[in-house]
Specification:
This protein has 5 helices and 5 strands. By secondary structure, the chain is an alpha/beta fold. The protein has one domain. It comes from Candidatus Southlakia epibionticum.
């Protein structure tokens, strides 16, 4: 069973993060590759540039962003491929650069993972 979690990339990497995946389309400002300690940069499943720019991390747009991003994920073969890859790990931490820990693409992606792997998924709040 895979355990999924989300975490800001600006937080220090920890051994209990497991497999660390950056799910931003753009590289986060001020983060070196060493500090990121990534196992994977999966920008192909991040929100499209158009959706990302429209959302602009505005919490008032979050509900609509969530619907649109879930639609993008449903139509993105890389999302299914990523899910299949990540199932082989005990723990996967989805990393993001946004300051808002409640209204970002990693939170939506966590919901997507839950919807598509509900019998084999344990989510850490």
């Amino acid at each position: 069973m895979t355990t999924y979690d989300t975490k800001r990339i600006y937080e220090d990497a920890r051994p209990d993060d497991g497999y660390r995946v950056l799910v931003d389309r753009l590289w986060p400002r001020g983060i070196s590759k060493d500090k990121a300690a990534l196992d994977e940069w999966c920008r192909e499943i991040a929100p499209s540039n158009e959706l990302r720019q429209w959302f602009a991390h505005d919490p008032a747009k979050y509900d609509e962003f969530k619907v649109k991003y879930l639609q993008e994920l449903a139509n993105n073969p890389e999302a299914a491929a990523a899910l299949a890859r990540w199932r082989s790990y005990t723990r996967v931490t989805l990393l993001y650069g946004a300051k808002d820990t409640a209204h970002n693409q990693a939170v939506v992606l966590l919901e997507y993972l839950h919807l598509h792997e509900s019998d084999n998924l344990r989510v850490i709040p």
